[in-house]
Fold:
Amino acid sequence: MPVNYNQPPLLKVEGLRQYFRVCASCTVKAVEDVSFEIYPGETYGLVGESGSGKSTIGRSIIRLYTPTDGRICFHGMDISRRMNPDTKTSLHTQIQMIFQDPKASLNPRKIAGDIIGEGLDIHHSCKSRAERDAKVKEIFVKVGLAPEHVSRYPHEFSGGQQQRLCIARALIMNPKLIIADECTSALDVSIQAQVVNLMKDIQEETGTAYLFITHNLSIVKYISHRIGVLHLGHLLETGTAEEIFGHPIHPYTKSLLSAIPVPNPAVEKNRILECYNYKTSGIDYSKGSYHLVEGMHYVKCTDDEFYKWN
Structure:
């Protein structure tokens, strides 16, 4: 389904900073001045190495963390500061998160039906128990699980089925945005393909937008409309999947792409791995993010002026 970029964005993140104070003399700057937008029905992929701040951004958006600075607007509502009850309700129902480890995010003491239906119970979305159970079984079918398994406990499901439970839990509230935090990293390759295809099918059916957080470049290329490259808490480069993979600008992006294995022994044998070291690169991340402007490579500085990258 093509995304209409002429409409207002569903999510707008401006200058997000997330700091964690470790002690009186040490503060970890996990996210530094990150800005991006997600439009209705779009999948925005966020890639980068472990520890680059991807999951922190997702948790800040859903307000598991209170942003240190910056502005987060969702559907026209500012959710980056103290919220009124109506805004909180909208946030808790219209944004859902799929966590990285399905086994750890599912309550082992509850049956699957109660886990999936917990959001409906909290927000009193159903008028009767029968209506609630019908919705739970319907969402079970939608994610490819048998409705008669609603009485099973999480440990009775396989890893791929547990991830489908997490997707069902996110979908039951009919959200406008789902934050998928490395939701395929714990799965084998065949199950990864099933989960990603399921998410694409659901997006086609419901128009849900995704913030897809991962370090798997092959998956993010397949599922994403636009991609942002994150390193050391900075958003270095952003563009469509075709631009990022076909015309990478930043040396860090080029090093990531050069590390993708090729399923061809002859090509793989001669593949050249590009190395990138921020300390010796001479690049200052504080000057902003790379963009593709009229087919030329530019770096956008903090004063909104464009300078050509030589």
Remarks:
- The first strand starts at residue 11 and ends at 23.
- The CA atoms of residues 98 and 167 lie 6 Å apart.
